[in-house]
Specification:
Elements (H helix, E strand, L loop, with lengths): L23 H8 L4 E2 L1 E7 L2 E7 L2 E6 L2 E8 L3 H9 L1 E6 L5 H6 L13 E3 L5 E3 L4 E13 L2 E13 L5 E4 L2 E4 L4
Antiparallel strand pairs: 1-11, 2-3, 2-6, 4-5, 5-10, 6-9, 7-8, 9-10, 11-12
C-alpha cells in the first residue's frame, strides 16, 4: 500500500518541512533522554592497540549477523578499524564505568595496565565485559561528522552481569522489574 501525505494546498507534491533546524546542543540534550548501553570498540593496527567508547551500537541483521557502530570522523580508532578491517565490541558491565571514561577523550595509552585478552584473530577483548563480539568491517558510510561502520559478526560471548547504562550524561545500571 502506498500512502502519500500532503498538506492542504500542496496537491501531490512532497510535504515541505517548516521551521528552523534543531540546534545541535538541543539535539544532543533530547537524544540524551534515550538510555543506551556503553561499549568499547577496539582493534590492533601496526603493532598498536586502539579503542574508543561508544554508545551508538545497533544490531542490523541476523542473516548474516551484522551490527553497526559510529565513530567520530577522522578518529584514530575509526581509522585503525578501517585499515585493519576487523574490530571487537566490548559491551561494558555496570562495574566498568571507569573504562568508559578511560576510552573517551585524549588519553595516550588507553590499554596501559588493563586486563586484555586477544581473540584468535588478535582483537583486543576487555576482561570483565558483559559481552564481547568480533567483527569484520562490511562497509563504512560517512554520516555528517561521524562514520557508520557496519560489521559482520563472526564470534560473540556474554557473561552474567548487569550492563552499564548511560542516560542524560550519567552512568547507571539496568534492573528488571
Amino acid at each position: 500500500m502506498n500512502t502519500h501525505i500532503s498538506s492542504p494546498g500542496q496537491g501531490n507534491r512532497s510535504p515541505v518541512l517548516r521551521g528552523v533546524s534543531i540546534d545541535p546542543k538541543q539535539f544532543r540534550s533530547v537524544m540524551a533522554t534515550f538510555a543506551t548501553g556503553v561499549a568499547v570498540i577496539a582493534t590492533e593496527w601496526s603493532g598498536e592497540l586502539f579503542g574508543a567508547t561508544i554508545n551508538s551500537l545497533t544490531s542490523v541483521s541476523l542473516e548474516p549477523c551484522m551490527l553497526l557502530v559510529c565513530t567520530s570522523e577522522g578518529s584514530a580508532t575509526g581509522t585503525a578499524i578501517r585499515n585493519r578491517g576487523f574490530f571487537s565490541v566490548n559491551i561494558l558491565g555496570q562495574h566498568q564505568s571507569e573504562l568508559s571514561a578511560r576510552f573517551t577523550g585524549n588519553q595516550q595509552n588507553r590499554f596501559e595496565d588493563l586486563a586484555v585478552a586477544f581473540s584468535a584473530d588478535g582483537l583486543p577483548l576487555l576482561q570483565g565485559a558483559a559481552a564481547q563480539l568480533c567483527c569484520r568491517v562490511a562497509a563504512v558510510h560517512k554520516a555528517g561528522d561521524h562514520d557508520i561502520i557496519l560489521g559482520e559478526v563472526f564470534s560473540g560471548e556474554e557473561t552474567a552481569c548487569r550492563p552499564l547504562v548511560f542516560h542524560k550524561g550519567a552512568y547507571g545500571s539496568f534492573q528488571r522489574v
